[in-house]
Design goal:
It is a single chain. This protein has nine helices and five strands. It has about 220 residues and is an alpha+beta fold. It has a five-stranded antiparallel sheet. The longest helix has 23 residues.
């Protein structure tokens, strides 16, 4: 479960997003973030019961403002990525904790150009397995519908009349699940997250299979 104190800190940071305030509260942040990191490592341990996690990546709270019009120095959320191990395991698990806006996510948020083309070619050839996975009752009830941006027209060299062109037009392939503040502070939250990620495994494993083979199903790794 997530501490109320962490949500309180993030709310206060939203109202005082400046270096002077943060420096005065840095000892508090370090204590809260240490506890948060321990919790996220606990999630990784549980995920390792059914998957193989290479790394728990806790994102820095400091914003990169070099190319942003928003010059506030700190993120007002905490986020983590659990990276799957090995070339044969693609995709990752994600969590963001923010007052009133907490969520988890799985999938492919910004595929490389080559990966995006490979996914689209697979869907062009046969999208049935993909659709069966994401339309599965348990998966759909847990994760809802696929998120991400889509092209307004068919990608170059793809038939705009293809029966699955709506899937092919996607630029990202990911799913999210939101949680209320009450839910993330519940003692069952950690197990709910692990269970949701387990439900997502068929999607991640299918995409891993696609991205590690050619269109003939031959391994490229």
């Amino acid at each position: 479960m997530i501490q109320q104190e962490l949500l309180d800190f993030l709310e206060e940071l939203t109202l005082n997003n400046n270096k002077d305030w943060f420096e005065g509260e840095k000892h508090r942040f370090k204590k809260l973030d240490g506890f948060f990191k321990t919790q996220m490592n606990d999630v990784a341990t549980k995920l390792n019961n059914t998957d193989l996690i290479e790394k728990t990546k806790l994102f820095r709270i400091y914003r990169d403002v070099r190319f942003s019009h928003d010059k506030t120095p700190f993120k007002t959320h905490r986020s983590v990525n659990w990276i799957r191990a090995g070339a044969s395991r693609r995709g990752s698990y994600y969590m963001r904790i923010a007052p009133g806006a907490s969520m988890i996510g799985i999938g492919f948020f910004g595929p490389e150009k080559e990966d995006l083309l490979r996914i689209r070619k697979e869907l062009e050839q046969d999208a049935q397995e993909f659709k069966t996975i994401i339309e599965n009752k348990n998966f759909a009830e847990t994760w809802g519908t696929m998120q991400g941006e889509s092209l307004k027209v068919a990608p170059k060299n793809f038939d705009k009349t293809h029966p699955d062109i709506e899937l092919i037009r996607f630029k990202n392939f990911f799913f999210t699940k939101t949680f209320s503040d009450e839910e993330i502070m519940n003692k069952t939250f950690e197990q709910q997250v692990v269970q949701a990620f387990l439900v997502a495994r068929p999607f991640l494993d299918y995409m891993s299979s696609v991205l590690t083979t050619n269109l003939n199903g031959e391994s490229i790794i």
